[in-house]
Design brief:
Elements lengths: L28 H6 L14 E6 L4 E11 L2 E10 L9 E6 L27 H4 L5 E12 L12 H47 L4 H46 L5 E12 L3 E11 L2 E12 L2 E12 L5 E9 L24 H5 L1 E2 L30 E3 L4 E3 L6 E11 L1 E6 L8 E7 L9 E7 L2 E8 L7 E8 L3 E13 L6 E13 L9 E8 L8 E5 L10 E2 L4 E8 L4 E12 L3 E2 L2
Parallel strand pairs: 1-10, 8-17, 11-27, 15-22
Antiparallel strand pairs: 1-2, 2-7, 3-6, 4-7, 5-6, 8-9, 9-14, 10-12, 10-13, 15-16, 16-19, 17-18, 20-21, 21-26, 22-25, 23-26, 24-25
Helix pairs in contact: 3-4
Length: 590
């Protein structure tokens, strides 16, 4: 009958034999000590987590340990490891550990060292470290019951009650057995007594008084023991029901389900015995991180603290690990998109299309108005299209509880340029804006910012992606004593001869400052209002500066009109903006 090898080719040793097919001479005592039992992870060599690279939606875990190997092929069992580890990412490396130099003994002379003439010179082959080879590495998983409960004296009251019911049921069962044996014996005694009566009456030797006395005694004892047996059986039924209820309650309250545990089976080939360093890495899901910030404004100084919020439920705690935070997306596709054919065709325009030009209004977002954006949860990791790496300055510990844990990354203090900004079209509030330069030494990723001013929490804002050294801005709330009202008017005029249409819009901004009697300083508010920007020559936009009051301080290429308005305590100002949008007669859509 042919022999079926239960091992895969990867489990075999270089000589072609399976690990369990070695002879008794090959299986030394140390070998048998290193081989674990097949029933489960009985003796595991520790393999702690020493470094973690937390990605956007997973983590790259690094484990290191020192192994004391014997010469030959050995199989080691290490762990436990998280059962969520990804098998195909498992990688193991062995590094020989150089011997520790020892001090010379008292009898060692100048000619006794390695450089003495009696010693042959070391060749490069002799000085080279031995080559340790990893023959196989894999993750083994098994459903294993959880650890046993604490000792009896530390058990819960429910478990103590269960023990009492079990002991009482055992006593009742034993008592019932004794009573049944006693009743059986009394029944045999009554049978013998009745046979004695029959024999005595047949022989003519009646003993009526003795017979009556013995019958009364046997019947009395049988009735007494029968009553005791009935009460014992009734109590046994009650105790059995209570015992079943207690067991059901114990199963719901204290019985732990089996958990999936995993360990690493490592097969190595060691040419010589000695210590070897092991480095094992793998990916694991159920871990992610997001950047968060804390900005504290104190006068003209701003302190920005960069932190990382880390969540992980990998099944094992990360204790005193070197934490690296990366924005690399290992699950994203790396292949370029396929090219498709894009055909451009020319056609003759219709007469109606040559007579008219269709235009439409389009909204463009401009991010320099200083208005805080609404934050709904934590945004995704935005790295500007390039993978960024941040490192924690000290070892950290992150338990596998699935909760958010904040890890400090960096902190810097820089000068802040404060300004009071208002965009009435977006909000009637005057916002405190702090502009600063990124002096952290790394890119600031997009994320929420906790704002602190005057030692107290004032709100939360969002920080956009900021390159090292680039300017950034944060809004620290609004002035409660300032108010802006916005009113708009529009008029339209057409020329019958040319068909040109002119639309004139007038925007009036009313600023008010309600100050306390003790305030004496003036406040400069930067007003921002926008005008349309035309992309075609058939439509022209012009700001009528002669009709504006006061004249704008500037108009940029994005159509943002700016005024720097000075408000004294209790002051009021009105700003008027007038602009016109003129379109040719063939323009349609305005």
């Amino acid at each position: 009958m042919p022999h079926t090898d239960p091992h895969t080719p990867d489990d075999r040793f270089p000589d072609g034999r399976a690990p369990d097919d070695r002879t008794a001479a090959d299986r030394t005592a140390s070998d048998r000590a290193e081989e674990p039992r097949s029933t489960g992870p009985a003796a595991l060599l520790p393999l702690p987590v020493t470094a973690v690279t937390c990605l956007e939606d997973r983590a790259h875990v690094e484990r290191t340990t020192l192994l004391d190997l014997a010469a030959g092929v050995r199989r080691l069992r290490l762990g436990p490891v998280a059962a969520t580890a990804v098998d195909r990412t498992l990688h193991a490396e062995l590094t020989p550990v150089p011997p520790t130099p020892t001090a010379a003994g008292p009898g060692d002379g100048p000619g006794d060292g390695p450089g003495s003439p009696a010693d042959p010179p070391a060749t490069p082959a002799q000085s080279a470290p031995p080559a340790y080879t990893v023959l196989d590495v894999r993750i083994v998983r098994s459903w294993t019951p959880r650890a046993p409960r604490p000792p009896a004296e530390e058990d819960s009251a429910l478990r103590h009650r269960l023990h009492e019911l079990e002991r009482e049921r055992t006593e009742l069962e034993q008592r019932g057995d004794r009573l049944r044996a006693r009743l059986d014996l009394l029944a045999r005694l009554a049978t013998d007594l009745l046979r004695d009566i029959a024999e005595g009456a047949g022989a003519g030797e009646p003993e009526a008084p003795r017979w009556a006395r013995e019958l009364d005694r046997v019947d009395g004892e049988r009735d007494t023991h029968a009553d005791l047996l009935r009460s014992t059986e009734a109590r046994l039924v009650v105790v059995t029901e209570e015992l079943h209820a207690a067991r059901a309650a114990l199963d719901l309250a204290e019985t732990e389900p089996e958990e999936l545990v995993a360990w690493v089976d490592l097969t190595v080939d060691a040419p010589v015995a000695g210590p070897v360093g092991l480095r094992l890495t793998h990916l694991t899901p159920c871990a992610l991180w997001r950047p968060v910030y804390r900005a504290a404004l104190d006068g003209d100084t701003l302190t920005l603290e960069t932190e990382a919020t880390v969540w992980q439920r990998t099944g094992e705690d990360w204790t005193d690990v070197r934490l690296t935070l990366s924005t690399a997306r290992s699950a994203a596709a790396t292949e370029p998109p396929g090219l498709t054919e894009d055909r451009l065709t020319l056609r003759e325009r219709a007469a109606a299309e040559r007579r008219t030009v269709d235009v439409e209004w389009r909204e463009e977002a401009i991010g320099d108005l200083g208005e805080p954006a609404a934050v709904v949860g934590l945004p995704g990791v935005a790295d500007g299209g390039e993978a960024r790496i941040l490192r924690s300055p000290a070892p950290v510990s992150v338990p596998a509880d699935g909760r958010a844990h904040r890890v400090p990354v960096s902190s810097f203090t820089t000068a802040a340029r404060r300004a009071d900004v208002c965009a009435p079209e977006l909000s009637p509030l005057v916002t405190r804006l702090a502009r600063f330069d990124n002096r952290s030494g790394h890119a600031l990723l997009a994320g929420p910012v906790d704002l602190v001013r005057g030692g107290g929490f004032v709100g939360r804002a969002t920080l956009d992606f900021t390159a090292p050294g680039a300017p950034a801005s944060l809004s620290f709330g609004s002035h409660d004593d300032c108010r802006v009202e916005r009113h708009t008017e529009e008029s339209r005029a057409s020329t019958a001869l040319s068909g040109r249409t002119v639309t004139t819009r007038t925007v009036r901004l009313h600023l008010s400052r309600f100050s306390a009697p003790s305030e004496r300083d003036e406040r400069t508010v930067a007003l921002r209002e926008r005008v349309p920007v035309s992309e075609i020559s058939a439509v022209r936009v012009r700001v009528r500066e002669e009709e504006c009051s006061p004249a704008p301080d500037g108009v940029d290429a994005d159509g943002v009109v700016r005024w720097d308005v000075v408000l004294p305590p209790g002051g009021r100002r009105t700003v008027t903006l007038v602009y016109e949008v003129s379109a040719d007669g063939k323009v349609a859509g305005l």
